[in-house]
Design brief:
This protein is 97% helix and 0% strand. It is built from 3 helices and no strands. It is mainly alpha-helical.
Length: 127
């Protein structure tokens, strides 16, 4: 039984190696095709330059506006925290009101039953 487990585990690394080799070879072939066609190569270079420039601009913006961004995040966190507190308070109020309504309803039902019993009792005396 252990030999079966060992063989199964030993087979996995070799299949992974084959897959990795296939991916590397496929990547190399794809890169070779892209590099061999001038139009594709220029398109790839242009796209890479755009990604570089956009990343640099984003990094510059983040560096220049770091304090403002941090401040906005803090304010948003405070706002969210306040909203959560308000919601918690509202839920507590609703729960207390519902509990009070339940107690009041039970009292009304008891009082109504008592009044009904008293009326029945009075009707029996009158008859």
């Amino acid at each position: 039984m252990e030999k079966v487990k060992q063989n199964r585990y030993e087979a996995q690394p070799s299949s992974c190696r084959v897959l990795c080799k296939g991916l590397w070879i496929g990547g190399a072939v794809t890169l070779a095709v892209i590099v061999s066609k001038k139009k594709w190569r220029e398109s790839l270079i242009q796209g890479t330059k755009e990604v570089k420039n956009t990343s640099a601009e984003m990094l510059t913006y983040l560096r220049e506006n770091r304090e403002e961004i941090v401040s906005q995040v803090k304010m948003a966190a405070k706002d969210v925290s306040q909203v959560v507190r308000d919601i918690t308070k509202d839920v507590k109020t609703i729960t207390e009101t519902a509990s009070h309504l339940k107690e009041s309803s039970e009292e009304i039902i008891r009082a109504t039953k008592q009044a009904t019993e008293e009326l029945k009792h009075l009707n029996k005396k009158d008859v």
